[in-house]
Amino acid sequence: MIKIVDTYAEIPSLFEDGKFQIEKWRIYAEKIYPALADIFESETENYTKNGDYTFEKDFLPIINAVCGSFEFEKLHEVFIEATENLNSRIKENFGRVLDADVVFWLGLGTSAGCAGEINGRNTVLLGAEKIIELDWCSKEQMCALVYHELGHIFHSQRGKMEQAAEENENSFVYQLFTEGIAMYFEQTVFGNAEFYHQDKNGWKAWCDEHFAEMLADFDCDLSAMTRFSQRYFGDWCDYRGRGDVGYYLGTRFIYELLQNYSFDEIINFDIETVYGHYKSFAKKHIG
Known about the structure:
The protein is an alpha/beta fold. It has helices at residues 22-32, 36-48, 55-64, 70-82, 86-94, 128-134, 139-158, 169-190, 203-209, 211-221, 245-257, 263-266, 271-286, and strands spanning 2-6, 15-16, 19-20, 100-105, 113-118, 121-127. It contains 13 helices and 6 strands.
């Protein structure tokens, strides 16, 4: 069953005079799960070690913006609404329940939502600071974010969500695939196959129009793609002035697979099978 972990009441104490206190945050994070602070500090260091980002310039302002903000209170309200009856909604759409924690917390500005195993539990972490920065504070957007991350956990618990050991073409194609799985799960529970919470300022219409070009560029980039050079996954990425276009491509990939396979079959594909289907998908649309 899904368990809701709500740390909203503890978050204001992590600030003094409107300024974030990292030592207090470490204690707070460790109370949620042992080693949680280490995980996220390491994640932040991955972005800052190359000198492109600094904690003080790129992450701290995002965190400090939470303190006393109206958006923070609003966000917590929609979190409560979005997580009501989650177990029944997922069972209604997919016939199964999930065993997971959904955590409302203050992170370090690296992720609005992430899913993985922490301290032996499948966990969705919802970073209030990043959600506010992205202005994903509506109930619709919160629902989408929660459902998307639970989609990754569904894939992990009910399918074969293997991860490539190193960065290569297979691993980035597999990322396209897993994000597409999560988007399909999100859209299904949400009840709208055309819904993308990224759709602002004509984002989806632009993606519809430029689908073949995006896929061709993704395919061309694969041989040299790295976690930090890729331009398809993440709001901070810039693909022709837009972010997150990999989620659109991944969703198109999954819907095409669903023409020939059931969802249960697809979530059990191994990495090599996914790569083969991707090459057929790319050849069909870009030659």
